[in-house]
Please model this.
Amino acid sequence: MQFWKMHGLGNDFILIDNRNSTIRETDMPDLALKLCERRLSIGADGLLFLSNSSFADAKMRIFNADGTEAEMCGNGVRCFAKYCYENGIVKKTEFRVETLAGAKQVWLILKDNSVDAVRVDMGTVEWERSKIPMQGEGKAINVDLPVDEENYKVTCLSMGNPHCVIFVENVDEFPVEYVGPTVENHEVFPKKTNVEFVQILKRDAIKVRVWERGCGETLACGTGACASTVASHALGYVSPRVKVHLRGGILEVSVANHVYMSGPAEKAFEGTI
Model:
């Protein structure tokens, strides 16, 4: 079985072409658990499968390192688009990728006939708690969330997957490794949640650390960068176009009728399992 090891700003993935359905759907969670184990296997934050799509140019399935399936992954879809183009599966520089969060339009930025970066239409934002999902009614914008003996102001939304954004004074010194998993598994989130810790740098720049559902803290998260930008903009902290500084590098996110994200996608190596 052939694979590519890829990453978007250090958020890393194993990508396998499963268009011939060699890997059964029921085996995918266990395979993700096995292959994503660091030091004992290939190691990655997630496992991506390329499948045939009935309405888009290709279909992406993503399983987190803990074996759970995610609806969408911003860094993953950029890597996926690069894989499809450089392997001749899709021969266009603009195409659609099917995900569990709907079809995503991607635009490839080429350098020497290889994909250097990818721009993604991340779609629209869902604010209603029932659609995130989150307990309660209405929207959760700058609301109180008790976490152990602390109380945090949170803004929650869905980018096709659930996000909880918390604004902090100094993100580098914040105890992400403690608060992250506590919020991820909080009872108000029936399907758990991704957690973003955001520091406002200026009107066009924010600094973010992400605790990803099913992965732990990662060097970057595409949907997390988008959620952080959308929440920052909704509260009036930033302009519609923002540079998001993550531990692995910078993503550019713009907020209009849809949310757009641009960033690099890189191949680390390929191999055989």
